[in-house]
Structures are given as C-alpha cells and as structure tokens.
Amino acid sequence: MPPLDRDTRLSYRGAARIREDQDTPTQTTDQRLLRSADSARDPWRVLRIQSEFVEGFDNLATVSGAVTVFGSARIAPDTPYYDLGRELGGALAGAGYPVMTGGGPGLMEAVNRGACEAGGYSIGLGIELPFEQNLNQWVDLGINFRYFFVRKTMFVKYAQAFVCLPGGFGTLDELFEALTLVQTRKVTQFPIVLLGTEFWGPLLDWVRGTLVEQGFVSPADVDLLQVTDSVADAVAIIGQSRQRQGGEDHR
Ligand SMILES: C/C(=C\CNc1ncnc2c1ncn2[C@@H]1O[C@H](COP(=O)(O)O)[C@@H](O)[C@H]1O)CO
Fold first, then answer.
1. For 189-206, b where at least 16 C-beta lie within 10 A, e where not — what string?
2. Under DSSP, is residue 178 helix (H, G, I), strand (E, B) or coil?
3. What pTM did the predictor assign?
C-alpha cells in the first residue's frame, strides 16, 4: 500500500492522535520537573502526571497483548535495518499482534509502517522533545506523552513481549529497563527478543564475559534475552511464550 497522505490516512484508518500538534516547547515538561529551581511547584505537578497516566490508560484500555518494538530514531528508509523493521512490523501484524513503538522516525517508523501495510493495528507512543517532531504517519493510534516514565509504563503494561532492533542510548535504556523488570520478576512470562546478531552479539559477549564473569548478574539472567536474525523466529518466540500462558495475559 503506498503511503496515504495524512488527511486521507486519518479519515480512512480512523486514527486517534492525542496531543500531536502542540507547539514545540522551549522547555519540556520533563525538563521542568527535573529542574530543582521549581521544587516549590512540584507537589502540583503530580496532578499533571496523574492526568497523563489517566489519558494513557484511557486511550490504551482496549489494547491487549501488543508487542512493543524499540529501535533507533536515526535510521533512514531504504537501508537494511529499516527494511528489517518494516518486515518485523508486517510479520507481527500478520500474526495478529497490535504493534507499539515510540512513534518517532527511523526504525520506529519502519515498524509502524510494516504493521500498517500488513493491515495490523499500529500504535505510536511519542514523547515531547525540545525540538519539533511529529508522530510518524504510520500510526493508527498516536499519543504524545510529556513524561518519559509515564510513557514507559504504557510500553510494558499493554505489551506481552518486547523486540529490540538496533539502536542507541534510547533503545538500550528501554532494553535494560525491561530486562530489569523481568530479572526482578516485576513482570513474568515476558520474552525480550533482540533482532540482529551482528549488532547485539558484542553486547551479549560483554554481558557474559564481564557481568557474569565478575558476578554482577547470574548466568541464568543472560537467558532472559533471545537473539536472532530471523523475523519469523522472533514472532515464533513470542507465540510460544503466549502458548505457555494458555493464551492468557498472566502478568
Ligand atoms: C534523535 C531523533 C529523534 C528523536 N525522536 C524520538 N521520538 C520518539 N522516541 C524516541 C526518540 N528518540 C528516542 N526515542 C526512544 O528511544 C528509542 C530510540 O532511541 P535511540 O537512541 O535512537 O536508540 C526508541 O525506541 C524510542 O522509544 C532524530 O530525528
């Protein structure tokens, strides 16, 4: 399916976009929260944070068993990793999973695009940034969050698995947060698949050779990550985990 222009897409796919077209802020809400000069006003910020949770829960309430995919914001279309992301989005949608990303450019866009082209449900959870950025055009449901930590809750709460494509600090942050939640059994039965052995292999070598070797993590912790080059394998790993749960979400 060729890309539809924004208006056509919105009316055709019935997309909902929440807080997308806000002006680019000179200072983000996250920045104000973290600035100590504003501490006297912090108690009142709780109401704003609360409202963002309410909005997220409200808009995502009908989503269940999604697969969240993380990956670089910087990879251009028509590159091997972009094509991999697009293939992944398509395969996940084909297997019936709603697909959730950070709603931005790069591999987030690739995955949303693949899901959309395959006729699946494509969700983008964007983040307010200090520079202008819209949600990519391939989301059916797009929500722009002000607070990173609220958005992160949504990524876990409405997903049954994570897939990580290659990426930088943002992707690594999201990967290790998920990994810690599984390691500490805050969430269980939650597969984390790393797609791309050439990219992820050296990280796993370091985890085994340094973290396990020096006792910072246990050997079993490494098994919480599953690495593959195959999109079909990634989808199968998620399917097997779901089967073990009897098709239910036991988290
Ligand atoms: C830097 C650029 C765009 C930033 N825009 C983002 N929009 C939405 N989500 C983002 C963005 N940047 C990071 N993220 C989150 O982190 C992951 C990607 O970060 P990485 O450092 O590129 O690996 C991704 O999964 C998002 O959830 C360029 O235009």
1. ebbbbbbbeebbeeeeee
2. helix
3. 0.87
DSSP 15-80: -EEES-SPPPPSS-HHHHHH-GGGGGGHHHHHHHHHHHHHHHHHHHTT--SEEEEE--S-PPSSSH
Is residue 162 in contact with ligand 1, taking CB distance under 6 Å?
Answer: no
Closest ligand 1 atom number to CA of residue 172: 23
In a domain, 6, yes or no: no
User: Considering its fold, how many domains does the chain have in total?
Assistant: 1
Evaluate: CB of 186 within 6 angstroms of ligand 1.
Answer: no
Look at residue 217 and tell me if it is in a domain: yes
Would the CB of 85 count as within 6 Å of ligand 1?
no
Tell whether 202 is covered by a domain. Answer: yes
**For residue 45, how many other CB atoms are within 10 A of its CB?**
14
Tell me whether residue 47 is in a domain: no
pLDDT of residue 247: 66
Query: Which CATH number does the domain housing residue 217 bear?
Result: 3.40.50.450
- What is the ipTM for the molecules in this complex? 0.95
* C-beta 212 within 6 A of ligand 1: no
Q: Taking residues 75-95, report their average pLDDT.
A: 98
Give which of 41, 23, 27, 35 is closest to 144, Cα–Cα. 23
Containing domain of residue 162, as a range?
Answer: 54-245
Q: Give the three-state DSSP class for 223.
A: coil
